[in-house]
Amino acid sequence: MTAAPRIDVITLFPEFIESSLEVGVVGRAVKRGLLSVQSWQLRDFAHDNYKTIDHRPYGGGPGMVMLIDPLRECLQMVRQADPRPAHVVYLSPQGQPLTQAKVRELAHRPRLVLLCGRYEGIDERLLQAEVDEEVSIGDYVLSGGELAAAVLVDAVGRLQDGALNDPQSAVQDSFENGVLDCPHYTRPERHELGDVPALLASGDHRKIARWRRQQSLGRTWLRRPDVLARCDLSADDRQLLAEFIAEWRAQDGGPGAVR
Ligand code: 4FV
User: How many CB atoms lie within 10 A of CB 223?
Assistant: First the structure.
């Protein structure tokens, strides 16, 4: 029986990571032992009276930079905490954009160690010596890496076997099959805001699957042409999309109108 995948998070705010694991699918996955998440207080590895973990940047400029040694000592302890090899990820705006494909890849690793930066970031020498890859959750600047780490723990956690009630929902996720998700409807079938598309109540599952695929392709064409450009569409997909575009142009007339 292989041990559950393990994620260690090095941070100045372990309570932030722990609180995000008390709820929802990932909180339940951790309680079920499908995934173990351990957060480490970086200040425990600073040994001066003030538990200093940062200092002014060489070359001047605003803000502070996180020191090498507290991080290095903490990483050493974290690596020794489990015999399995650790893949060290630093969350930063300089990282590779986080995508579902990257999430899937990281979700298959036995051990992840997530480094959460604060202030201006971490001394480059520590990153060069200890970090396997840098990952960014988006082109904007947070006050700390904890939110990004929590995003990664959630995205990886929900893909662990048994985490989702119905594994099918992961298969049908946005980006899982390269395109955006289709619209979803539930009770009531009739509402002053509109009726559920009749086809969805027809029970004709082949037609329903085609409609959902067409909606996914159409929305991706409208909202994320960059994502569609990365898809290798089947002939059937191209046919579905062409029908969608024709109907859309007929109905709404011209690019730019939001659907
Ligand atoms: C970030 C991001 C991010 C930069 C300075 C923490 C902050 C501070 N991390 N994706 N975007 N990090 O903004 O991952 O140290």
Answer: 13
Say yes or no: CB of residue 144 within 6 Å of ligand 1: yes
* Residue 221, helix vs strand vs coil: helix
Give residue 250's domain range: 172-257
Query: For residue range 48-87, what is the model confidence (pLDDT) as tens digits?
Result: 999 999 999 999 999 999 999 999 999 999 999 999 999 9
How far apart, in whole angstroms, are the C-alpha atoms of residue 63 and residue 185? 49
pLDDT one-digit tens code per residue, 189-225: 999 999 999 999 999 999 999 999 999 999 999 999 9
Same domain, 125 and 14: yes
| 66: CATH | 3.40.1280.10
Q: Domain check: are 146 and 205 in the same one?
A: no
Instruction: Report yes or no: 207 and 199 within 8 Å, Cβ to Cβ.
Output: yes
71: CB partners within 8 A, 6+ apart: 10, 42, 45, 53, 115, 122, 126, 130
Quick: pLDDT tens for 29-40.
999 999 999 999
Known catalytic membership, residue 238? no
Whether residue 121 has its Cβ less than 6 Å from ligand 1: yes
- The rounded distance, in Å, linking the Cα atoms of 38 and 101 is 24
